[in-house]
Amino acid sequence: MNEILEQIAICVESGKINNASPFPPQMKGQDGADELTKQALDSGITAGEILQGGLMIGMEKVGVKFRENKVFVPQVLMSAKAMSAAMEHLKPFFASGEAERKGIFIIGTVEGDLHDIGKNLVAMMVEGNGYEVIDLGTDVKAEKFIEEAEKHPGSVIGLSALLTTTMNNMEKIVKAIKDNDASRKVCIGGAPVNDEFCQRIGADSYNPDPQGVVEFLNSQAS
Amino acid sequence: MPKITVHSNNKIQSTSYNEGDNLLQIIRQNEQDITAPCGGNGTCGKCRVKVKGLGIVTACTHYPINDLEVYMPNESENKILTAQHEYTFKQTPVPPELANEVDYPLGLAIDIGTTTVVFYWINYIDQSLIKTRGIKNPQSAYGADVISRINFSNSENGLVELQNSMLNCIQQEINYTCNEIGVNSDRLVQISVSGNTSMLHLLLGVSPSSIALAPYTPQFTEAKKVTSSELGLKTNPQTQVHLLPSISGYVGSDIVSGLASIEAPEQIKNYLFVDIGTNGEMALVTPEKIYCCSTAAGPAFEGANISHGMAALDGAISSYNKGEYQTISDESPIGICGSGLLDIMAYLVENETVSTDGFLEENYNIATNKIDGSSICISPQDVREIQLAKSAILSGINILVQSAGLSMNTIDALFLAGGFGNYLNPESATRISLLPPSLLDKTIPIGNTSGTGAILHVKSELFNSRLNQVVDRCEYIELSTHEGFDLEFAMNMFF
Ligand code: B12
Ligand code: FES
Question: Regarding the domain delimited by A104-221, which CATH topology (the fold level of the hierarchy) does it fall under?
């Protein structure tokens, strides 16, 4: 594999954003995902190749380590930030249609809830795995999810809730989405949510961690 | 109807029950003390009881159909903090007018915490504290945290049930103490209550629903005054029940009352006030202003979400040093409480069994449970839970200091309020950076300040203006929308 792509993957995996970033300490003074992505593009590697051969590889490694409890929120957040820095350089190519993504994922924290740290991690992990992510933010009502989904046929919706009280809103939102379009896929997550709840409210997939959503989306896309 | 027989603390009681109810509901109807941290959602596993012939069952997910016999776990008296502190505000006593009309007037200060309720009886004749008693909050049976209780209050009759359970508990205390000192309950001329915003809503029977949903607006924060007869309390019918003022949905009158109760010595100019609990309320007091916030640390330090975690009851490992542990009442160990947890974490971080980023290879054995031979250990997931909780507290503190435009080295003292703050070892707490390491030598436990404030309110009407000053000087910092909270929170997870 191309050496620079390998380096980008390492930067994403270890959360090295750019040359100036002090994190992780052992990579101090080295170029990060930001610089390396630019260099890769300049050397003629396509955006699609960088996404698949660099970002996705690095992101998957962090996702798996996170699932296995080997790394935690700070490392994943730094990885996600490194990925976003690289993605900034790639976005124009996706916008112009020169490079393609696997699908569209619409995510938001449900009405009544402002917790967004977990949701943001999921959003960034999904993006780093080759999907276009539309983040509707926090305290999002059912209508908003439906309106956005209608603009993007085939998109999948992700709902996050961190309060036992807003789990009820999650139930309402899933129902509204399904009433509007029964074939629309909805995945849910957040600390108090579990598989049993997911089945009870008729959502399509529950995952305790971001890597799980990515696998679900991949299974839908293929 | 089938019959249930409950064995509890050597008492046996039999009643019939409705088929279709779960065991948690049945036990509650029998007015037995049972803890249900997740409010009966079947997720916390802490509502376990022993059923004859079946062994241990999770009460809230067990639906009995036949006659059954239940053995409740033996409850040992929880160590509830009731002490006052040495920085208590000094004031001139101004008793309520009603105190002049009865012979032996008494006042009652009540601190309603989510977990415990503490009663303080004051004699108006010499302003002395004649009796203090702490009990478990009877609403614990409806969920350990505020959100679970609010959930319950939304169910049919839930609000009334919660209100009654608190009023009954207050009435019982009044009857019990008046009986004990041999006076009629109409001697009680004033009741002052401090507590978190949700507890005060429940006391008045006002729905706290809106507090659990963004933007988390309470129905009231101002001070309230009702007569005991309006609440249905049997005392002197003219007794006023005062609810002290709050600041927001998650910074309640317990914090206002605590802040007002402190009179820091002159050399302490800027100080932090931190109540480490499920909601993690805190404030930074500067000569001009008070900044406050609530950080939602979660109940990890109270033992919930920790595999062998437990409340500070008999048999809980409460301190730990290099492989040596101590338990409450020196009983053989059955679990780990918050202060023990901090010591263990500090030790594991110090000897690098847990890396600075919180990685623990496998379960770490602490002790053996002599009853069933099982291991009392810390799991890798437990470390993650501690990281979330401790980071929430430290992030809150850092953001307060930043918001005031100060730096940590200009902070003159860190007052630790509440039970946990009193029992924890500050060295362990700073070693794992639950508290800022640089404040180790400035950390001062000051006990139950909420109760202290309520006592000051019972003693003097003048205390109202001090409470109002706190409210007026307070700037509430909303962390949910605070720019940069996420990065702060992530980075403070390191040990
Ligand atoms: C950080 C935090 C906050 C921050 C939120 C900042 C933000 N911008 O999000 C602040 C301090 C603002 C906050 C506020 C509140 N909080 Co808060 N908070 C927490 C805390 C400490 C950690 C949550 C967190 O971020 N975890 C880390 C992330 C990475 O994990 P996560 O969100 O679970 O996400 C992961 C998975 O669940 C999953 N996932 C998440 N979303 C999705 C979506 C999909 C589709 C999928 C597949 C997966 C998925 O993937 C993520 C990565 O693995 C928890 C307690 C704890 N120890 O867990 C309480 C907690 C969630 N908060 C709670 C509460 C009640 C509140 C408040 C409403 C009240 C309060 N007590 O202060 C307030 C809001 C009011 C206010 N004005 O302050 C309670 C909820 C209790 C309950 N029974 O519901 C908790 C459990 C604490 C407690 N027991 O009191 N909180
Ligand atoms: S599992 Fe029953 S109350 Fe939590």
Answer: Rossmann fold (3.40.50)
Identify the closest residue of chain A to B491 by CA–CA distance. Answer: A74
Tokens in use for A207? 């995952």
What's the CA gap between B360 and B378, in Å, rounded?
9
Minimum distance, in Å, between the CA of residue B487 and any CA atom of chain A: 8
Q: Do B384 and A72 touch (CB under 8 A)?
A: yes
Chain B residues close to A25, C-beta within 8 Å: none
**Residues in chain B within 8 Å Cβ distance of A115:** 480
**Sign of the dihedral defined by the CA atoms of residues B374, B375, B381, B384, in that order:** positive
Rg of chain A (C-alpha set)? 18
Task: State whether B39 and A164 contact (CB < 8 Å).
Answer: yes
C-alpha to C-alpha distances, A90 to A57, A94, A99, B81, B234, nearest whole angstrom: 16, 7, 9, 58, 72
CB B63, CB B23: distance < 8 Å: yes
Q: How far A82 CA sits from the closest chain B CA (Å)?
A: 14
Q: Best substitution site from A105, A106, A117, A155 to test ligand 1's pocket, by max atoms within 8 Å of Cβ? A: A117
Residues of chain A with CATH 1.10.1240.10: 3-95
Q: Would you say how long chain B is, in residues?
A: 495
Question: Separation of B316 CA from ligand 1 center, angstroms?
Answer: 28
φ, ψ of residue A191 to 5 degrees: the values are -50, -45
Kindly report the average pLDDT of chain B as a whole number: 91
Indicate whether residue A117 lines ligand 1 (CB < 6 A): yes
Reported as a pLDDT band with limits 50, 70 and 90, residue B78 is very low
B359/A113 CB distance under 8 A: no
Residues 4-43 of A with CB under 8 A from B: none
CATH 3.40.50.280 domain residues, chain A: 104-221
Beta bridge partners of B184: none
d(CA B319, CA B341) in angstroms, rounded, equals: 8
CA distance A186 to A54: 28
Among the bound ligands, the one closest to the CA of B148: 1
- Dump pLDDT digits (tens) for B424-434: 999 999 999 99
Q: What is the residue-level pLDDT of chain A in tens, covering all 222 positions?
A: 589 999 999 999 999 999 999 989 999 999 999 999 999 999 999 999 999 999 999 999 999 999 999 999 999 999 999 999 999 999 999 988 888 899 999 999 999 999 999 999 999 999 999 999 999 999 999 999 999 999 999 999 999 999 988 999 999 999 999 999 999 999 999 999 999 999 999 999 999 999 999 999 999 876
Distance from CA of B167 to the nearest CA of A (A): 25
Q: Are strands B224-227 and B474-476 parallel, antiparallel or unpaired?
A: unpaired
Distance from CA of B179 to the nearest CA of A (A): 42
Alpha helices (H) along B351-379 = none
Cα separation, B269 vs B441, in Å, equals 16
Helix and strand numbers, DSSP H then E, in chain B: 13, 22
How far apart CA B223 and CA B193 sit, in angstroms, is: 10
What is the Å distance from ligand 2's center to B116 Cα?
19
Three-class SS state of B482? coil
Nearest by CB to A163, from B147, B381, B491: name it. Answer: B147
Six token digits for residue B47: 């509502």
**Nearest by CB to A73, which of B150, B381, B490?**
B490
Cβ atoms B166, B112 nearer than 8 A: yes
Q: What is the ipTM of this complex?
A: 0.93
Fold of domain A3-95: 1.10.1240
Residue B189 and residue B104: Cα distance in Å, rounded? 10
Whether residue A114 and residue B481 make contact (CB cut-off 8 A), yes or no, is: yes
